[in-house]
Each structure stands twice: as structure tokens, then as C-alpha cells.
Design goal:
single chain, about 450 residues, alpha/beta, Transcription Regulator spoIIAA, 5-stranded parallel beta sheet, 5-stranded mixed beta barrel, 14 helices, 18 strands, globular, binds iron/sulfur cluster
Length: about 450
């Protein structure tokens, strides 16, 4: 039996696609190995979101080739799509596969292994130029992707039409395309039947779901239907843009509803001029109204935000506008990204870059604010009864079971449960949050 290893860089969509490729290979009789085991084939699923991510992808490819000199190497993912020449130049890469051909990797893998002479110069599968045109249709894996986590991911949308000035993703993944509604339900039902209690609906710009389908459907339509039909116990949105967050989605969340009361909403900047330069189609006022609306209907909802710090020409005052906005809003946690210019995007050529030391200091201030936000959110939830999904993997340090709540808290459970470990894994439990340590590790107990 042939063995393969997949190294994944970047976002949850890449992770999902790696698991999709793996499911198809396993179906064909391949065995998935991990990093330290020998493999006949290594697939590196790369990321291009920043220049650094591209560089890390190339480093990962070189490392894997060094450590596995006899292994066939396939490189795919966003970096393979945006910079195929750079990737193909790396000695030892046998094949570069663009996004639209990803689902063909299992067939390609068998061909590649069958060849007696794997030298890429002689290969009939020799490098073909990557097609940058949008895929125009949603590409899904024939197998339902289960992955190795307690909570399954389901990619329902791909690509983006927004072209924010700092972002390479639309160039890498093409325009927005969606999984047809009946396919979404087929996948959810199969995942529900396989025992998954939670599915995370993911995409590159998930809020654009359905706009390319005929007849058209919106993300809110889809989630309302999932709420009615309940193919799985709960679903979570991986992230949603401020313009696409509406009352109908909020109404699908909370007690007895299917949608987790957890919304991750990219803000990027709280200054309207910077938002314009980023080509983000909303104002700080709109973002503020969205957050307050969620909080008024779901006061304990977990609300996360992405912040991009040090966009070209961002002044101290503009940074302060972002800081104040976040400080005043009921946000529970932040994901903070220092701006780094990405070649191939308009912002790469923007004037007045911010001094890296200034960016560092602004990130430090924002991280301190993030800690305060997390503390406040945990305090609000202390002593509350919450629904948590017990994970298959125990906490690495303590060996305790842990559960993920609907509003996105990860809670370590009572060690006395050790003998019930297997029975509880993958189950939904009621729990009470009891304590939090300095590193924000949370502890709670299951309630009857
Ligand atoms: S919405 Fe903007 S930041 Fe998000 S993927 Fe699309 S272009 Fe990139």
C-alpha cells in the first residue's frame, strides 16, 4: 500500500481541501502518514495570503524535499496558483497543481507513482502553466470530507469578488462560486449520520453564498433552512463580512436554534478613510451597528474581529479611531495582523508606508486591548450554564477532556471524568464555567 503525507499551510479552507484530497486518496487505497513517517508521496498545500506566507510555503517545500529525497512531490494551494514559476523552480518538485485541478490530485498521484522515471523533465505530467481564470463553478470533492476533528468543516463557497486593495485571495481563488443548496444538505446529512454534532460552514467570502446560483439564494436563506430541517445539531459560520450580517442570521442563533451564537466579523480598520483605501465597502458606523445589534439580541454571543494594523498612511489618529471603536464595542476577542505589502495587490504600491517599529507598537497596544476583551467576555460567562461539544482530543498538557461552547469558549472539564472519557467524546454536554487561569485556560464542570 502506498503512503502519502500532506503538509497544510494557511487557512481553514486549505485544511478542508487537504482533508478532501486525503479522503479521496484513502478511498483509492492509499494510507495517510504523519510528518515523521516515510511516504511515497508528499503533497504541500501552500498559502499566499502574505509575502511571508509564500516564503514559508517555499521553505516547507524545500524542507520536505530535503527530508524525503526519494518521495514524489506535488505542490498545490494559493502560492502554487499565484507564483507557479517560483514553486516549479524548486529542485525536486514533480508537479504543481492549480486550484481548479485539486480534485484531480488523487488520479495524478497514482500516475506519478506508476512512472518508472520520476524525473520531472521526462514526465508526461510535466508542469503545465497555471490557469488564472476563475473556475466559474464550485469544485467539490466526491467524498464527504470528515477530517480528523470533532467538528467537521464544510466548504460551501469559494473565491471572492471584492478585491480589497491589500488582499491577494481573489487573484488566487477567482470569483465567488457556491456549492449548490442540495449538495450542502447532502453533505450535512452525511456528516450528521456519521456522528458529527457540529459543522463549520466555511468559505473565502462565505456571506456571498448563493449569489452565483440560479435560482439565487442567500446565506440567510440557507441557514434558515438548515434551522428548519436540522440535518446536524448545530452549525457555525467560520467568518462573515459586516455587510452580510443580517437580523435573519442573528435570529437563527441562540437557545434552541441551529446556528452557534458566535460571529467572526473582519473589521480591519475603524477609520473610514483607511477603510476606503482598503476598498472595504462599509463604514465604522455600520460595523458598530452590526455588533450592537448582535449584542442586543444575543448578549452572550462570542464576537471576534480581524484587525489589520499599519496599512499604508495610517496615522496615529487613525489607529486611535480603530482602538476606540473596539474598546467601546462588546467584542470578545481579536485576531491582529500587522500589514505587510503583498506583491500583486494595489496596496503594494501605496505611498507612506508605516514604520515597522510603529506597527509593532500599535500591535502591542491592540494585543493588550484584546486581553481585556477576552477577560471581560470570560467574566460575563462565569457561572453560566453553557452547551459544549466534547472534543476527541484531550488537553495536551493536563490530559483533561475539553468542550467547545456555542459562543466559542474552550473549557477543560473535571479530571474525575477520566473513566467516562470515551463515552463523552463527540457528545454535547451542559456545563458550567467555573474558573480561568492567567493564560485564559478555562475550567468547568458538567451539570446534569
Ligand atoms: S473580502 Fe477582501 S479580504 Fe476577504 S478575501 Fe475578499 S478581497 Fe480578500
Amino acid at each position: 500500500m502506498k503512503k502519502f503525507y500532506i503538509e497544510t499551510l494557511g487557512c481553514k479552507v486549505n485544511q478542508y481541501e487537504s482533508d478532501g484530497i486525503a479522503s479521496c486518496l484513502v478511498k483509492k487505497g492509499w494510507v495517510r502518514t504523519n510528518k515523521d513517517q516515510p511516504a511515497d508521496l508528499c503533497i504541500i498545500n501552500t498559502c499566499a495570503v502574505t509575502s511571508r506566507a509564500g516564503m514559508q510555503s517555499r521553505q516547507a517545500i524545500r524542507r520536505i524535499i530535503r527530508e524525503n529525497p526519494e518521495t514524489r512531490i506535488i505542490v498545490t494551494g494559493c502560492h502554487a496558483q499565484t507564483d507557479p514559476d517560483l514553486v516549479h523552480k524548486i529542485e525536486g518538485v514533480h508537479q504543481v497543481v492549480c486550484h481548479r485541478d485539486k480534485t484531480g490530485i488523487p488520479d495524478l498521484a497514482s500516475d506519478l507513482i506508476r512512472k518508472s522515471d520520476p524525473e520531472k523533465e521526462d514526465s508526461t505530467l510535466a508542469f503545465k502553466p497555471v490557469d488564472h481564470t476563475p473556475a466559474n463553478q464550485f469544485i467539490s470533492f466526491p467524498e464527504v470530507v470528515q477530517g480528523s476533528m470533532t467538528r467537521a468543516y464544510l466548504k460551501i463557497q469559494d473565491g471572492c469578488n471584492a478585491f480589497c486593495t491589500y488582499c491577494i485571495v481573489p487573484y488566487a481563488r477567482g470569483s465567488s462560486v457556491s456549492m449548490p443548496e442540495q449538495e450542502v444538505f447532502r453533505h450535512l446529512e452525511l456528516l450528521g449520520d456519521a456522528g458529527f454534532r457540529e459543522v463549520i460552514l466555511t468559505g473565502i467570502h462565505t456571506g456571498m453564498y448563493g449569489r452565483d446560483l440560479r435560482p439565487g439564494i442567500s446565506l440567510s436563506d440557507l441557514v434558515e433552512k438548515i434551522d428548519r430541517l436540522r440535518p446536524v445539531e448545530r452549525v457555525r459560520l467560520s467568518s462573515i463580512e459586516p455587510m452580510e450580517m443580517d437580523d435573519r442570521l442573528i435570529d437563527c442563533a441562540g437557545d434552541g436554534r441551529v446556528l452557534c451564537d458566535h460571529f467572526h466579523i473582519p473589521l480591519q480598520s475603524g477609520d473610514d478613510d483607511i477603510l476606503k483605501k482598503m476598498k472595504r465597502p462599509y463604514t465604522s458606523g455600520h460595523f458598530s451597528r452590526v455588533i450592537r445589534r448582535i449584542h442586543s439580541k444575543l448578549p452572550f454571543a462570542g464576537i471576534g474581529a480581524d484587525i489589520l494594523i499599519g496599512f499604508p498612511s495610517e496615522t496615529d489618529e487613525q489607529f486611535t479611531n480603530t482602538f476606540r471603536l473596539i474598546k467601546d464595542l462588546p467584542i470578545s476577542y481579536l485576531h491582529i495582523f500587522p500589514f505587510s505589502p503583498r506583491k500583486g495587490t494595489p496596496a503594494y504600491d501605496f505611498e507612506n508606508p508605516v514604520d515597522p517599529e510603529v506597527i509593532k507598537e500599535r500591535c502591542r497596544l491592540m494585543r493588550a486591548l484584546d486581553r481585556k476583551k477576552r477577560e471581560a467576555f470570560i467574566r460575563d460567562n462565569m457561572g453560566r450554564r453553557l452547551k459544549g461539544l466534547v472534543q476527541h482530543k484531550e488537553d495536551r498538557q493536563s490530559g483533561r477532556l475539553k468542550a467547545v461552547t456555542s459562543n466559542y469558549l474552550t473549557v477543560s472539564l473535571d479530571p474525575a471524568l477520566a473513566d467516562k472519557n470515551q463515552a463523552l467524546k463527540g457528545k454535547m454536554v451542559d456545563l458550567v464555567l467555573e474558573r480561568c487561569d492567567k493564560e485564559f485556560n478555562l475550567f468547568g464542570r458538567i451539570t446534569p
